[in-house]
Amino acid sequence: MLTPSQRRMAADLDTRLTRLARYDDESIVHETWIRQRYDSGSYPTYAPARAAAVRTAWHEAGHAVAALALGARFSSASIRRGSGTEGRVHRLSAETDTSFVIDAAGQIAERLMNWTTIERDDELASWLAAWRSDGGDARRFRRSIGPRFGSDEIGAWRYSEALLIPRRPRIRHLARALLAHPRHLPYEVAASLAGTDARAAH
Prior knowledge:
CATH class: Mainly Alpha
Oligomer: single chain
Number of strands: 3
Strand order of the largest sheet: 2-1-3
């Protein structure tokens, strides 16, 4: 259940995002996220820092929406840049035979941002072979597909896409909330914004 302050946060964000509906993702990035990336010295100007924030928001929103779809719990979602990470879904707990969907969801969501999913299996196989360094997502994905897919990474990836593609509007809405809000989003607020009843995952 949302607390009164969480209910106000979700309502305020929904209202703000409705008002910003005609603006693209890069136009609504809060200055906090741009300056944090620019000040780190990793980006030469505000433009790539802004683009990086957008990419991270879609990535983390993908993880969060996948977790909500599978009934997994997490404490909050954020695009705050930290040591070795551009953002995070915090304290994520998922112990099911489909938890690999959550691990794949960040990369899938980034591709759904611009509808650049990999259609051919041979191209996907090449991409998966090169997918290694991704905050542990690649390692966890390969480890967790075993119970349902064995070593069939392509099958597990296609299964993940089938679950997430219909949820693209939810991923986009949550990504835009992460961009517009200068702090983390608690689980209950993220669930509300993604159109999911947080009680369903209890």
